[in-house]
TrEMBL record, chains A, B:
The chain holds residues 98 to 284 of 284 of the full protein. It comes from Chelydra serpentina. Keywords: DNA-binding, Homeobox, Nucleus, Transcription, Transcription regulation. GO terms for cellular component: nucleus. GO terms for molecular function: DNA-binding transcription factor activity, RNA polymerase II-specific; RNA polymerase II cis-regulatory region sequence-specific DNA binding. It is found in: Nucleus. Residues 118-178 form the Homeobox domain. Residues 120-179 bind DNA. Belongs to the POU transcription factor family. Class-6 subfamily. Its main location: nucleus. This is POU class 6 homeobox 1.
Length: 187, 187
DNA sequence: AGCATAAATAATAA
DNA sequence: TTATTATTTATGCT
């Protein structure tokens, strides 16, 4: 467990929904240790984290629709402990740097953009219905195509080879999972 | 859904990857009670479960070699939540049958427990971000470490040697897969 | 606000 | 090593 049961005695700065926290408030260790444990105020009210979301996701904050990047999910507890653990060091690093800027008198936090690009996950491809249909047809004929066949299919459907390969992997997986489920499920 | 962390409701004790619940937790857990329709009775009122506790905790089962029966694996949470969910029916069946036998005064309950494949897959290790960073640093310097080097790295990072070895294998493989140098790569 | 599933990755097989 | 599976993560939708 990454977050030790910190003593609530050290008078941390509580962050409520009604106020906009400063960076130093955000950086308080108590706050950090509590992250991922309690529901928090909206991200939109928290400049540093909002910025973090922006940076993590590479997109602007949408006012109506809350962002769902890992950082924001961490903030909202909408995240698994394991993910939280992975994210925490990044968060700490970012926040400490943000605090530094803040101490240097940099008022406008939104101008603070930097940090590491952090290799981003491949954008989730969305297959066209036609492509899915074709893929399923291929799958039905052969659920385990060779590398060469995968290449050909990819070329035919005009998708990345790796994407097609993974599609077959996942397809086999779900098939196995669902069929297994039937075996186990007894009323 | 294996991630109870996402649920904001004040639900029963969730089973997460990061903690090992006690038997009583398991009994009161949403996991187990969900399948049964009614709330569970206390452990003390459930002979089979009590026995299960005894056997798994009191060391009646072989202590060195981990028991492989579904119940024991469930008890020790030597499975992921998702697996636990899959295993639940089996466990429930075991419990009811065990209770039946117990009522009949039958002592050796473990005889009918077997049947589960003993080929337990190694639990997926999750590297800390620090470890991954370190591994990547090593990898950048040398993607193909010798056995001796692997041993040293494993020792340094305090991971199992085999785990580190496999990490390097997979790292090379991933690199190869995602590499755009593939001859058959579609642009 | 969840779900379905694409992507990532540890483990295993060949 | 390469190929595939098993498991986990997280994102594009509605």
């Amino acid at each position: 467990t990454p977050a030790p049961a910190a003593k609530p005695s050290s008078a941390p700065v509580p962050i409520t929904c009604s106020e906009t926290p400063t960076v130093s408030q955000l950086v308080s260790s108590k706050h950090l240790s509590e992250l991922g444990k309690e529901p928090r105020s909206p991200v939109s009210q928290r400049p540093a984290l909002a910025l973090l979301c922006e940076q993590t996701q590479g997109g602007a904050l949408t006012p109506s629709l809350p962002p769902r990047c890992p950082a924001c999910r961490f903030e909202k507890l909408d995240i698994t402990p394991k993910s939280a653990q992975k994210l925490k060091p990044v968060l700490e690093k970012w926040l400490s740097e943000a605090e530094l800027r803040n101490q240097e008198g940099q008022q406008n936090l939104m101008e603070f953009v930097g940090g590491e690009p952090s290799k981003k996950r491949k954008r989730r491809t969305s297959f066209t219905p036609q492509a899915i249909e074709a893929l399923n047809a291929y799958f039905e004929k052969n659920a385990l195509p060779t590398g060469q066949e995968i290449t050909e299919i990819a070329k035919e459907l005009n998708y990345d080879r790796e994407v097609v390969r993974v599609w077959f992997c996942n397809r086999r997986q779900t098939l196995k999972n669902t069929s297994k489920l039937n075996v186990f499920q007894i009323p």
